[in-house]
């Protein structure tokens, strides 16, 4: 159980590893994937996210090793194209999560974050007079232009974004490639979010899903990374589109230094440093690692936890 100061930097980790149809066991302080072809040792201390597809089994000892090394585990569908569940990140500090909840629950601050996220997508300031509806229209035009540009560059016909998760193979190749690429991006973004102590569920532009904030952050990178990859892969006409897309994503995440960007971008979007300074809020979160933390108090904000206040004089 470590705090954010003693955790290894998420940007220094390998982005993700996808496994399917294998058994995963502990091997000393690491894990090993076992299938009919043999054993593959995996240094989970330097791995950010482990994506588990169909046909995987995971021992209790392997889960312990992954948790001890701060590797997030995600259970997903075939080819990493559907997200089902996640393990827990390594940090137990609540400061970032409480800040995120504060920004989420205050309507004015919520809107401030929404506008900031859109500014980061457009890479330019927004006119303060623009309404949210107008900003959404601008975003729609930006994404449509990104699809058109990729379609022209790689000579791949494009109609519209259209697929159904429950009828996967009925979608055309480019839509399947986009979904596979975005799924990889979601996994890496979610791992960074959880590793930094934020919640994937408390989204600002997207709401109502357990991964809403993951979608908010991933949308910052789609036009630069996953959309070009999807069209490029389809233009090469490989036999297994989803598999090739995952390989391209792995390389692109390294080239773009994605893990260097995600946490700083989250802090920018949520005004982490600015808002704490402006509001003058300094709360003593958590206390010692094995202490129960602080208690909320309406007068002094927080008071010391682990104290039997029944013994106090009234």
Commentary on this structure:
The protein is an alpha/beta fold. The chain folds into three domains: 10-86, CRISPR-associated endonuclease Cas1, N-terminal domain (Ribosomal Protein L15, Chain: K, domain 2); 95-274, Four Helix Bundle (Hemerythrin (Met), subunit A) (Up-down Bundle), CATH 1.20.120; 283-311, no CATH class. The chain is 43% helix and 15% strand. It contains ten helices and ten strands. Strands 1-5-7-8 form a four-stranded mixed β-sheet. It has a four-stranded mixed β-sheet with strand order 4-3-2-6. Strand 9 and strand 10 form a beta hairpin. Helix 3 runs parallel beside helix 4. The radius of gyration is 22 Å and the shape is flat.
Strand content: 5-15%
Q: Let me know the number of strands.
A: 10
Provide the residue-averaged pLDDT: 83
Q: Any idea what the shape is? A: flat
- Total helices: the number is 10
Low-confidence parts: 1-8, 276-281, 283-290
**Corresponding CATH architecture of the largest domain:** Up-down Bundle
Please write the string of helix (H) and strand (E) elements.
Answer: EEEEEEHEEHHHHHHHHHEE
The CATH class of the largest domain, by name, is Mainly Alpha
Report the major sheet. 4 strands, mixed
Helix content: 40-55%
Fourth CATH level, the homologous superfamily of the largest domain = CRISPR-associated endonuclease Cas1, C-terminal domain
């Amino acid at each position: 159980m470590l705090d954010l100061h003693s955790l290894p930097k998420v940007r220094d980790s390998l982005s993700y590893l996808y496994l399917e149809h294998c058994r995963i066991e502990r091997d000393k302080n690491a894990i090993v994937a076992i299938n009919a072809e043999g054993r593959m040792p995996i240094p989970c201390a330097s791995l950010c996210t482990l994506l588990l597809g169909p046909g995987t089994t995971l021992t209790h000892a392997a889960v312990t090793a992954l948790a001890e090394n701060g590797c997030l585990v995600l259970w997903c569908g075939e080819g990493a194209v559907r997200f089902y569940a996640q393990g827990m990140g390594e940090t137990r500090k609540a400061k970032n999560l409480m800040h995120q909840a504060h920004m989420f629950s205050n309507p004015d601050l919520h809107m401030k974050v929404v506008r900031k996220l859109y500014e980061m997508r457009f890479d330019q300031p927004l006119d303060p007079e623009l309404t949210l509806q107008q900003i959404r229209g601008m975003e729609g035009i930006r994404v449509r232009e990104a699809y058109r540009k990729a379609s022209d560059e790689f000579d791949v016909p494009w109609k519209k974004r259209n697929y159904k998760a429950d009828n996967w193979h009925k979608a055309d190749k480019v839509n399947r490639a986009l979904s596979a690429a975005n799924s990889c991006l979601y996994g890496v973004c979610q791992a960074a979010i959880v590793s930094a102590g934020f919640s994937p569920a408390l989204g600002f532009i997207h709401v109502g899903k357990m991964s809403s904030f993951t979608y908010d952050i991933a949308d910052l990178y789609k036009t630069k990374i996953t959309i070009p990859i999807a069209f490029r892969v389809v233009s090469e006409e490989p036999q297994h589109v989803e598999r090739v897309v995952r390989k391209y994503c792995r390389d692109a995440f390294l080239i773009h230094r994605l893990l260097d960007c995600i946490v700083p971008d989250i802090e920018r979007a949520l005004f982490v440093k600015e808002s704490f300074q402006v509001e003058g809020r300094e709360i003593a979160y958590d206390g010692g690692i094995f202490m129960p933390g602080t208690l909320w108090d309406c007068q002094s904000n927080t008071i010391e936890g682990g104290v039997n206040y029944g013994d106090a004089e009234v």
